[in-house]
Design a protein that fits this description.
The chain is α/β, with parallel strands linked by helices. Helix content is about 40%, strand content about 25%. The chain has two domains: about 160 residues, Spore Coat Polysaccharide Biosynthesis Protein SpsA, Chain A (Alpha-Beta Complex); about 80 residues. Strand 10 and strand 11 form a beta hairpin. The longest helix has about 30 residues. The relative contact order is 0.13.
C-alpha cells in the first residue's frame, strides 16, 4: 500500500522538520501546497523530497482539497505542519502498508494528543479528538467554512490506536490569541449563512462548554493545565457567539 502525505503550509519552518521527520520513512510521496512562505519552509520541504507548489490562499477547505488533488497514490494522509506521527502510529501504519485494505474501508481515524505547558492532555474536550486522516483520495473531500474544516468521507471508517501529536499552542497566551482569531472567522461564516442568536446564547454556550470540558469529560484530571484549557475554550465559545450577535445587530442597524 502506498501513501501520499499531504500538507498545506505558510511560514512553518519551526514545525515542518519535526512533522516530516516523523513520516518520511512511511511516505511514498509528500505533497505540499504553500501560500507564500517567507521563512525556510520551502528549504525544509525540499530536504525531505516533497513536491512543492505555491498557490494563493483561498481558505482552508479549498487549499486542503488542492493538495489532495496533487497526490498520485490511492491513499492519502492529511497532515498539519504542527503535527507529528507518534512512534506507535508509525509502527501501526508501517504494518498497515504491508496488507491491502478491505474494499469497504474508505478511511482510518486517529486520536490526537496535545502537549500543553509541559503536560500531555488526555482528558477534557481535547482528547481523544479522533479525526479521519488516512483515507482513499477519491472517497473524501474537505468541506466547511472559513475555519474548522471537516472531511466528508464516503465509506466505512476504521479506528487506529496510535496517537497523532499536535503541537497546537506555545502557551496559554498563544492559545487565547488564536482562539480570538478562530472565533471571528466562525462568527463571520455563521453570519454569512444567515444564523442569528439570542442575547443569552453567549452565556449559555460558554458556560456549558466549561462544564462539559472540565467536569463531564474530566478535564480536572489534567491539573492546572486542564483548568486553563477549559477556561479559555469557554471564553472562546462565549466570544464567538457574542461576535455573531454583534454582527447581527450591526446588520439590523445597517
Amino acid at each position: 500500500m502506498k501513501i501520499t502525505f499531504c500538507l498545506i503550509t505558510l511560514n512553518e519552518q519551526e514545525n515542518l522538520d519535526r512533522c516530516l521527520r516523523s513520516c518520511v520513512e512511511l511516505a511514498d510521496e509528500i505533497c505540499i501546497v504553500d501560500s507564500g512562505s517567507t521563512d525556510g519552509t520551502e528549504a525544509t520541504a525540499r530536504k525531505y523530497g516533497a513536491r512543492w507548489e505555491v498557490r494563493d490562499w483561498p481558505g482552508y477547505v479549498i487549499q486542503k482539497n488542492r493538495v489532495i488533488d496533487l497526490a498520485t497514490h490511492e491513499w492519502v494522509f492529511s497532515l498539519d505542519a504542527d503535527e507529528e506521527l507518534s512512534a506507535d502510529l508509525q509502527t501501526e501504519i508501517r504494518q498497515w502498508k504491508q496488507h491491502a485494505a478491505p474494499t469497504a474501508v474508505a478511511g482510518y481515524s486517529v486520536p490526537r494528543c496535545v502537549p500543553y505547558e509541559g503536560r500531555w492532555i488526555r482528558h477534557g474536550d481535547w482528547y481523544p479528538d479522533r479525526l479521519v486522516r488516512l483515507f482513499r483520495r477519491k472517497a473524501a473531500r474537505f468541506a466547511g467554512g472559513k475555519v474548522h474544516e471537516r472531511l466528508e468521507i464516503n465509506g466505512r471508517v476504521v479506528p487506529l490506536q496510535g496517537e497523532l501529536h499536535h503541537y497546537s499552542f506555545r502557551d496559554s497566551r498563544d492559545h487565547w490569541e488564536r482562539a480570538q482569531k478562530y472565533a471571528r472567522l466562525w462568527a463571520e461564516t455563521q453570519a454569512e449563512a444567515g444564523r442569528t442568536v439570542y442575547p443569552w446564547t453567549p452565556h449559555l454556550r460558554g458556560g456549558f462548554r466549561w462544564f462539559r470540558g472540565y467536569l463531564l469529560k474530566r478535564g480536572f484530571l489534567d491539573g492546572r493545565q486542564g483548568w486553563r484549557i477549559a477556561s479559555i475554550c469557554a471564553r472562546e465559545v462565549f466570544y464567538k457567539y457574542l461576535l455573531l450577535r454583534q454582527i447581527n445587530r450591526n446588520h439590523v442597524k445597517g
